[in-house]
From TrEMBL, chains A, B:
This protein's UniProt keywords: DNA-binding
UniProt domain Transcription regulator PadR C-terminal: residue ranges: 90-178
The organism of origin for this protein: Paenibacillus eucommiae
Pfam families, alphabetized: PadR (PF03551), Vir_act_alpha_C (PF10400)
MF terms in GO: DNA binding
Protein name: DNA-binding PadR family transcriptional regulator
Signal peptide stretch: none
Superkingdom as given in the UniProt entry: Bacteria
Domain Transcription regulator PadR N-terminal: 8-77
DNA sequence: TTAACCATGTAATCTGTTACATGATTCA
DNA sequence: TGAATCATGTAACAGATTACATGGTTAA
């Protein structure tokens, strides 16, 4: 059981999903490729933490829809009470910015504007996401209770939005610092 | 040449350092252990990107002090102009918060307060760091030019501070959301 | 007709963590 | 006396990425 396994269980704890859907939806809090997810799902199934049914589809390929078992829920609950590892952030851009004096102003401005664009798109995506959560929750988001099924998603997306906004702010500040050079 | 290698080169581009010092100083932008760094330094040296001298110390163990070579600088400069990978963030806490409804309010509040404490300490550390940069730079930080040797560090620490503040903000907001449950 | 999306899987490789190994100095 | 810091290295293992493999549908 590694962290990604718990991530998969946490999604399945909300509702049954296929491996493909899990792969798409876990990106926001634990980036992973399908080649990592499919073998883990098989292991979780062998261990009795999840089970699946094959759902035939006419327009698309058939899919395996996984559900969490009671054993899986217990595992997840136990894990929550164990010590939490520190967050890990790795960003190539910060290395490049750190030694930006090796290149010229244009290069530096390009790097920053590309990243600003990335964060802008991310914000658009996150705002769409929060609107979808709002519709699903059926209540004003600010008054959501911990037991509302949408609560977890809201907390997650809210954090992603705050972080992305602070990153955008930094991009603008950094570009300004460059222009004043 | 992987990203960590460029991270090491970017530090050596500022000034010569030992493997041990590199290990400590790279944590802020690319977390890595000494067991990853020492073999990479050996490879970089074989490739002619860095060189080292052994500096004997009386009170502490002798150390290898590495410097970047011209070839290393060229490598680094070329790398900056190549496409930049998206940033990667992984945080166990977000998985736990996502399925927090499995546990009780106390558990949830504990998780958040522990993380808040972590971010508070990080902020203290970063503020100390920025003061040291300020002393070193010998000029008001807000007017630092791109070619000042402290510019890169300032950009880096500034981003870390903005991010940590936004994370702290989220922690407080999330705790409030819980209390209103 | 070409690319994108849906859908699942395995193999090879690279990256990162934990553990093993050694040994001096300093501080509580 | 025991823990922490300085200092460098290797080995084993776990985690993550890229590439290989297959094949249908849909929209530009």
């Amino acid at each position: 059981m590694n962290t990604l396994s718990y991530g998969l269980l946490s999604l399945l704890n909300k509702s049954p999903r296929s491996g493909y859907e899990l792969m798409q939806q876990i990106q926001l809090f634990w980036p992973a490729r399908h080649s990592q997810i499919y073998p883990l799902l098989a292991k979780l199934q062998e261990a009795g933490s999840v089970e699946f049914i094959i759902v035939p589809q006419s327009d698309k390929p058939d899919k395996k829809v996984y559900s969490i078992t009671q054993a899986g829920k217990n595992l997840l609950r136990e894990w929550i009470s164990q010590p939490t590892a520190d967050p890990i952030n790795r960003d190539e851009l910060m290395i490049k910015i750190f030694c930006i004096s090796l290149t010229n102003l244009n290069q530096a401005e390009l790097l920053l504007s590309q990243r600003e664009c990335y964060y802008r798109n991310k914000l658009l995506f996150l705002n769409e996401k929060i609107e979808r959560i709002s519709l699903l929750a059926g209540a004003p988001l600010e008054s959501l209770s911990m037991h509302n099924p949408s609560f977890g998603s809201y907390m997650l997306v809210k954090k992603a939005i705050l972080n992305t906004e602070s990153n955008l702010e930094w991009c603008k500040w950094a570009a300004m610092m460059l222009r004043n050079s």
